[in-house]
Specification:
Layout (H helix, E strand, L loop, with lengths): L1 H11 L15 H24 L5 H73 L5 H11 L10 H17 L2 E6 L9 H19 L9 E9 L2 E9 L6 E2 L2 E2 L11 H12 L3 E7 L2 E9 L2
Parallel strand pairs: 1-2
Antiparallel strand pairs: 2-3, 3-7, 4-5, 6-7
Helix pairs in contact: 1-3, 2-3, 3-4, 3-5, 3-6, 3-7, 5-6, 6-7
């Protein structure tokens, strides 16, 4: 009877410890506990067999019950340690990605500042050349450089993000519109703003790449404060089915090692400031909603 129960417990509990290929999972404490469970079950079984003939039925059943109870408790600890290890592993990956994004932010900030200087110099030169160039050509030049004229958001870091993504959308034939009160985000660290909005807009752009209909290659973003909440809403068309796990979309990228952690890092940042993140797919429209308590 006890052996059957051990087998069932293995099937429902221990089997979940098996990790997908490509992930390294080592925990010496779990190994020690596994050895302890096997040793404990073996010793107890031997004791049962020795004392079974002389022991009363009630005492024997109590021993069996205690044996099963101890095994259940130990298996619960194993499951808890396993899940904790996975969460720590994911947190380490997220923190590593955030560190890389911090470096990327510094590079992007310097590039955008240099681009803005060149842009203003070019506008100044065009003003002086307006009388020497044909009006049609001048209008065409103004149209070209207007791509780099990104409306300010009220937050310097968000300006960097929006400049990057606006130029990327222009290259890929995606229309990006936004209405943002960036001053409401001043309570967040610079690198967190860069990572949160960078990942959110990257996800939207990746989704729109798969849409052939030009009229649906659009995305919008709103950041505002209302009713004591600072809300962020990003929406874009989405093609295909969306699978969720723990409230987050499962990545469709074949490289599972690091892809998919962008959304997890977003949730990590949002919860860091006491906010909430929610996602839903409504009539082929992907909706990302983030809410922070007013600071």
């Amino acid at each position: 009877m006890v052996s059957i129960i051990y087998t069932l417990l293995y099937y429902f509990f221990i089997k979940q410890f098996e990790k997908p290929e490509g992930n390294n999972f080592e925990n010496k404490f779990i190994l020690v506990l596994c050895v302890f469970v096997n040793l404990y079950a073996t010793v107890f079984s031997v004791v049962f067999r020795i004392t079974q003939e002389n022991a009363q039925t009630e005492i024997f059943l109590i021993c069996v019950f205690l044996d099963i109870l101890c095994c259940l408790f130990t298996l619960y600890l194993l499951s808890y340690i396993y899940r904790t290890s996975i969460l720590k592993e994911e947190l380490n990956i997220i923190q590593s990605l955030l560190k890389k994004e911090k470096t990327q932010f510094t590079i992007s900030q310097n590039n955008i500042e240099m681009m803005n200087i060149k842009f203003h110099d070019l506008k100044h030169q065009l003003t002086h050349l307006s009388n020497r160039i044909d009006e049609t050509e001048m209008e065409e030049l103004r149209k070209i450089i207007s791509i780099y004229d990104i409306p300010p958001t009220g937050n310097a870091v968000l300006d960097v993000v929006m400049t990057e993504k606006k130029l990327q959308c222009e290259q890929e034939g995606i229309e990006l519109t936004y209405m943002v009160d960036g001053k409401k985000l001043n309570f967040m660290r610079e690198t967190d703003i860069y990572s949160l909005f960078g990942n959110a807009l990257d996800n939207a752009i990746n989704s729109l790449r798969n849409i052939k209909n030009k009229e649906k290659r659009v995305m919008s973003m709103i950041v505002k404060e209302t009713m004591g909440l600072i809300s962020i809403h990003i929406e874009n068309y989405y093609q295909g089915d969306l699978q969720f796990q723990d409230g987050l979309p499962v990545t469709t990228n074949t490289d599972q090692d690091f892809h998919g952690f962008g959304m997890k890092s977003m949730k990590y940042i949002v919860e860091k400031y006491g906010g909430e993140l929610s996602i839903k797919l409504d009539d082929d429209v992907f909706n990302l909603n983030i809410a922070f308590p007013s600071q």
